[in-house]
Amino acid sequence: MLLTARPKRRMNLFTIRKDDRWSFLIRQANIEGMEIEHLELLCTIAQTKSLSEAGKAHSVSQSAVSQVLSQLEKRVGVTLFDRKKRPLALTEEGRMFIGGLQPILQRFRALEEELIAKQREVKGAVRMAAIYSAGHLRLGRVLQEFGKRYPKAKVHLSYLHPAEIYNHVLFDEVDLGIVSCPERKKGLSVSPWIEQEMALILPAKGPLSEIERCSRRELLNIPFVAFARGLAIRRMIDLYLRHQEIKVKVTAEFDNIDTMKAAVEEGLGVSILPVDCLTRESSLGILKVIPFSKPLSRPLGIIQREGSPILRVRSAMLSLLQEGTQDALSLASAQR
User: Fold this and answer.
1) Cβ distance 190 to 182 under 8 Å?
2) Distance between CA 272 and CA 190 in Å, rounded?
């Protein structure tokens, strides 16, 4: 009797149970030398929805990011991102893959941190997301000091809209988020960071430049460039103006401080912005800054996901952020 070997059935994404598909994809991704860094890069693409932004976060070129993504998609046999959409969007298989990949990478980082802790070194990467204006002065100084203290650690930083930061932290796509007027939400812990002094800003030239002080009389129905509705900072400023019985005429709304500064410079109105975001424009005489007689400040806070593993590199960044003011960081640098 002649026995013949039965041909081995080739497994693919659609020949296994749905619940096991993500684990199958991950096993496939780890063959032929696929590295953890590539999988972390994939998660960053999903977070930023951009190949170029993901490349910046990992200090690699956009073409390198594209090659890694194509290589991974070839290995698992499915398309993970819809490249026809802008911004990039995950396919159904991509959502399944990322959903299964994130807890595995989280556990891997925790195990890695346990081993690193025994060596008393801060290594690995901390994932951060911040509002655009947090990059002015303070956060930049923190990142520089972090690099000096922990040269073997990395920071993956993305600048995002506040609502996106909350979502990314909740879904464990970033470790630490920096937002203004932090809101307490289920599943998140909030730590205060700094208070940013706010001031009235005017164009250096034109009729609006003649305003001398922040009074009810001088600001009555004046054209006003406001933060977009729905932002916590907008609600805070509206409440302040109402308490001061100051009625302005909102002529433009933006969710980006740089855009607001440009609008004021063009004479579209006056605005209220953080003073430490106006250093360049004030020194060059582009914008006038008028402080309030009754101080107004914008709180910046740090949000984290409750129940997340306490990683050493994350703790190091959090401790540095909470050391306090820019002067404290300058003193620490001077003592080195």
Assistant:
1) yes
2) 25
Model confidence pLDDT, tens digit, residues 76-99: 889 999 988 888 999 999 999 988
Reported pTM: 0.62
Task: Give CA–CA dist 239/259, Å, rounded.
Answer: 23
Specify the CATH architecture of the domain 13-103.
Answer: Orthogonal Bundle (1.10)
pLDDT in tens, 177-219: 999 999 889 999 999 999 999 999 999 887 777 776 676 777 7
CA dihedral sign, ordered 232, 142, 281, 165: negative
Q: How far is Cα 15 from Cα 17, in angstroms, rounded to an integer?
A: 7
- Is CATH 3.40.190.290 the right assignment for the domain spanning 194-299? yes
For 266-284, the pLDDT digits (tens) are 989 999 999 988 888 988 9
Q: What backbone torsions phi and psi does residue 268 show, to the nearest 5 degrees? A: -75, -15
Domain boundaries, the chain: 13-103, 194-299
**pLDDT band (50, 70, 90) for residue 18:** very low
What whole-number distance in Å separates Cα of residue 133 and Cα of residue 139? 9
- Tell me the residue type at 232: A
154 pairs with which residues across the strands? 125
Tokens 């424009």 map to which residue? 281
Dist CA 13 CA 79 (whole Å) = 11
Query: Following DSSP, what letter does each residue of 90-133 receive, concatenated?
Result: E-HHHHHHHHHHHHHHHHHHHHHHHHHHHTT---EEEEEEE-GG
